[in-house]
Amino acid sequence: MITTTALTKSYNKVPVVRDVSLRCEPGTITGFLGANGAGKSTTLKMIVGLARPDRGTATVDGRPFVELPNPTRMVGTLLDPSAMHPGRSGRATLTIAARLADVDTRRVEYLLDLVGIADAADKRVGTYSLGMRQRLGVAQALIGEPAALILDEPANGLDPEGIAWMRALLRDFADRGGTVLLSSHLLHEVQATADHLIVISDGAVVAAGRLDELLASSTILVRSPDPDALGAALRAARIDYVAGPDDVLAVDVSGGRVTTEVVAGVARDHQVLLTELRRSETDGLEQLFFSLTAAKAATAQEAAA
Amino acid sequence: MTMTIPSRTHGAEAAPSSVLRRIPFPRLVRVEWGKATDTRAARWLLALMALSTIGMMLAPVLAPRSFDQTYTSYLRIAAMALSILLPVVSILLFTGEWSQRGVFTTFTQEPRRIRVVNAKLAVSLLMGGGAAVFGGVVTAAGLGLASASGRVLDANLTAGAVTGYLLFVLINVFAGVALGALLQSSSIAIAASFALPAAFALLGAASKLVADWIDMSTTFNWVLENEWGGHVPQISVSVLFWVAVPLAAGVVRTMRRDVA
Questions:
Q1: B66 at the A interface (CB within 8 A)?
Q2: Domains, chain A, ranges and CATH?
Q3: Most buried of A37, A266, B64, B219 (most Cβ within 10 A)?
Q4: Nearest to B23 among A100, A114, A169 (CB)
Q5: How far is residue A148's CA from residue A142's CA, in Å, rounded to a whole number?
Q6: What is each CA distance from A263 to A125, A171, A217, A225, B205, in whole angstroms?
Q7: What is the pLDDT of residues A60-84, one digit of tens each?
Q8: Is B102 close to A26, i.e. CB distance below 8 A?
Q9: What global pTM score does this model have?
């Protein structure tokens, strides 16, 4: 199990990760979704002790990563497929990892086969394509027979066949009780791979939950010429929303409490004029993801103005 | 498509002992030793160092008039030869991780970074010792060649001279280690390892204070030539300046640095 509590980090006083709390359970694949620069990689690095959080904690199997006796036996990591010595062969790279993990080096041959680079095992990693490095990286992550995997953008550089292979491998790993946390900036990739989802935007978690629930939940889009007053009214009624472009607010209806009637009533009570009020008919998750990215752009515009 | 990964069940009930045990330090040292010697670049560098030592040893053999024909002067040739490339080897041992981004792997395999640093220090010590022994063997071969040519050599080798030789080699190794640990970039650290001693030698020409206390071509030569008398404070300051202080700062930086 992987958990974080209120992880927070700034680089040069610019907040990169803000109060990120997450929880990945055994037997599940958690997709960590966000645009490039949203803070995904920094969060993953803080979980494995490569970066120090300003505040907050992260644990793997109940302990901070840096206190795991032999971490590769507990959690396999693939954070940067280019972070392998180009002068070493794929086999040598895995053999080093196997020695440190104290597993039989026969596992090296098995994994070279499993990830499909046995033919290139004696070539130097410097000659590998990005896809081959991802495969080698996955093999390295699996070397210590870990119970959890932490992968940063594992689909990068893989061809469609490779992506399908990766999905099957991760699904199999999770089905046998493993915990998987993987990041991606591609919505459809996460949708096809993960069963839990954490959406991060501008360093903060903006949505989290089971994928099917997030997909089922739609939003109510409500528009007013006076979005500030509408926002204040919604907040007063304890209704969560996200500010989108063109004065649209996307209201969260995941709790089932909020309906279009409720929103209309709140607007009437606060005498806010509405020009549009409807359930979003498009794919809920996509709507959510794009509204969040748009909200971020809108905030940036406000900040610049 | 289905595939299975033979593996223990993921629960806690089947945890082999190596899951619960720290990586033993000797294993860390063995792995670091392997990493320092298993790439083509590393092997070329070691071969070059061996060849340059042998090449320089030919000088006193072939030009007896220009070199003292004594055991200690031959041994000093080996020391000078080793001190050119040996620091580069030890620099790469530390900077290679950052330059090749290997820290991503290394520090997730052993997140207690001080243990990795200690393993690398042990490897540096072993390499320095090995290089010193190799230099001794090359010296013996040079001396053998010289006496085979009918020359009479002054067998003036004392325990003090051998100790000075060994210390000189190790100081050079750890000066490289210190630069590598501090600067964490192969190109910058290697450039610095050649530029800084030269710069302080120039300054030493201008200032006797620098020459006596910091210029390693003066102070470390006292070590090599076993001339400790009256020089211990200067040698100590030099070792602090070139080894202890940058190494301590480098270890702190390695502990704290975020991997980007």
A1: no
A2: 2-211 (3.40.50.300), 217-304 (3.30.70)
A3: B219
A4: A100
A5: 9
A6: 58, 40, 16, 15, 84
A7: 999 999 999 999 999 999 999 888 8
A8: no
A9: 0.83
